[in-house]
Write a sequence for this structure.
């Protein structure tokens, strides 16, 4: 599969897109990885200043599933030596971005309703402000929650491809889903070997593309609560836990 390099692009961190962020190692979309040292706990007392939420325009229209014919063997787990058969799938998202969508993010969003047991390990703005990624994890586990935002006029074609890995005979659940008036696309990756499954919800207002990723055992109600909680924030800087002061200055210069 030529898009293997795109694993982690949406919902699972994309190595190609985040290679500039050194020291962050994560498990994403069929890739086996083991979280290293957690980076920077959430700043105590962070407060979100909610600004009036812009009117939602449902710009994500659908997706198309393509399944690879080849069956692959997963990388060997260095801890227990296990490997397993898997098949790759791609879901190509159909998004109608506004012609005047921004080339870099002008309005930053964040989901404030993160369960207490999760600790922030990732907070970064990439590609000259074109892409953000935030992550929270239950320490000592591989259970994480991630949130991504792309500027509409800078979304690369590979960011509209969702890579999913399943058992050879399985097909991932996917399709359009409306959550509290937001029309988006829900993709579900089941647990496979040592790779904990995920539920990923994508949506767009025409200016930005968003993705919220949660563990596969999150209920519809939990997913809806988190998606609904996503808010525009006045100051994103306190959440940029994996950026240096100089990197932040360069972004907001």
């Amino acid at each position: 599969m030529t898009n293997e390099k795109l694993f982690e692009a949406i919902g699972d961190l994309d190595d190609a897109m985040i290679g500039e962020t050194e020291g962050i190692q994560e498990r994403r979309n069929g890739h086996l990885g083991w979280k290293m040292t957690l980076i920077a706990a959430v700043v105590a007392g962070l407060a979100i200043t909610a600004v009036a939420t812009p009117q939602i325009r449902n710009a994500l229209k659908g997706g198309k599933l393509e399944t690879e014919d080849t069956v692959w063997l997963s990388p060997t787990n260095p801890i227990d030596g296990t490997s397993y058969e898997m098949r790759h799938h791609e879901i190509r998202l159909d998004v109608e971005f506004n012609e005047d969508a921004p080339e870099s993010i002008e309005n930053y969003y964040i989901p404030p309703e993160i369960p207490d047991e999760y600790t922030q390990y990732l907070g970064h703005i990439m590609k000259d402000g074109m892409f953000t990624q935030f992550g929270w994890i239950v320490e000592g586990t591989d259970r994480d929650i991630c949130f991504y935002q792309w500027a509409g006029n800078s979304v690369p074609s590979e960011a509209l491809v969702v890579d999913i890995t399943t058992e050879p005979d399985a097909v991932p659940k996917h399709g359009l889903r409306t959550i509290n008036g937001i029309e988006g696309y829900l993709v579900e990756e089941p647990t496979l070997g040592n790779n904990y499954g995920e539920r990923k919800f994508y949506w767009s207002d025409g200016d930005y593309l968003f993705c919220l990723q949660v563990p596969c055992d999150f209920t519809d109600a939990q997913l809806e609560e988190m998606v609904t909680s996503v808010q525009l924030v006045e100051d994103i800087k306190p959440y940029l836990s994996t950026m240096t002061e100089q990197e932040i200055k360069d972004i907001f210069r």
Remarks:
- The longest strand covers residues 60-73.
- Residues 78 and 165 are 20 Å apart (CA to CA).
- The radius of gyration is 17 Å.
